[in-house]
Amino acid sequence: MWPFRSRPQSPIVRLAPAAARYAVIDSELTGLDPRRDAIVSLGGLRIAGGRIVLADRFYEVVQPTSALTATSIVLHGITPEEVRGRPGIGAILEEFSAFCAEDILIGHFIEIDLGFLRVAYANAGLPPIANPVLDTWPLYDWLSSRTPNDDGPGLPRLQDPRLPMLAQALGVPSRGEHNALGDAFVTAQVFQRLLRRLERWGVTTTGDLLRIGDPKHALDPHSRSALPLT
């Protein structure tokens, strides 16, 4: 497995979280198995200076390498007619890499997206992107495990970790639709609200942020409860 992780010596870990640049990404898929399924669309938005930059975005619908299924069409609404004549995923990866640049990647259960991207980059003969990565679920889970106090209001513990549930808990409007760019926008708003709360809990560097939001902790949604800052 290729690392999508920040190098420990990277100066990015010393930045204040609000000073860092982020690329919030999401993908729509024909299924959840990278060995058999494929990316149908890829979307991303930039966060800079703590603000979502709506004009700085990435969105492409691609011709998947595996067939669209009735189940996947119901989820993301992309039909065979819409992908007919579209470029393959390999044709847009260099542009996607340029969009991500060296920013911190953010996603909700982002390892799913990264698993498909690893396969796509390998099949295209391109070096994988090696950006530092954050997952919104472990960030939320860490915060929801804190005891409310004057510095940090509590968040409800969630049994359902899907993005619409986080959005609802944080007051972010979400219609629950599956669209790569729309979901990236919801994820970006979720992250903004989490970041404000994290700062009140003493998360003052991106090093802390990356450790709490490490995607590997999303595999066990409640493994983050006891993680301290130091």
- Which CATH architecture is right? 2-Layer Sandwich
Which sequence of strands runs across the widest sheet?
A: 3-2-1-4-5
Give the integer mean of the pLDDT values: 88
Question: What is the name of the CATH topology?
Answer: Nucleotidyltransferase, domain 5
Quote the distance from N terminus to C terminus.
Answer: 28 Å
Strand content: 15-25%
The secondary structure category is: alpha/beta
Uncertain segments are 1-9, 221-230
Number of domains: 1
Q: Cα-atom Rg, whole angstroms?
A: 17 Å
Number of extended strands: 5
Shape: globular
> What is the CATH domain class?
Alpha Beta
CATH homologous superfamily caption: Ribonuclease H-like superfamily/Ribonuclease H
Order of helices and strands: EEEHHHEHEHHHH
Biggest sheet architecture:
5 strands, mixed
Helix percent reads: 25-40%
Describe this structure in words.
The chain is an alpha/beta fold and 230 residues long. The protein has one domain: Nucleotidyltransferase, domain 5 (2-Layer Sandwich). 34% of the residues lie in helices and 16% in strands. The chain contains 8 helices and 5 strands, in the order βββαααβαβαααα. The chain has a 5-stranded mixed β-sheet, sandwiched between helices. The chain is globular, with a radius of gyration of 17 Å.
Describe the structure concisely for a colleague.
By secondary structure, the protein is an alpha/beta fold.
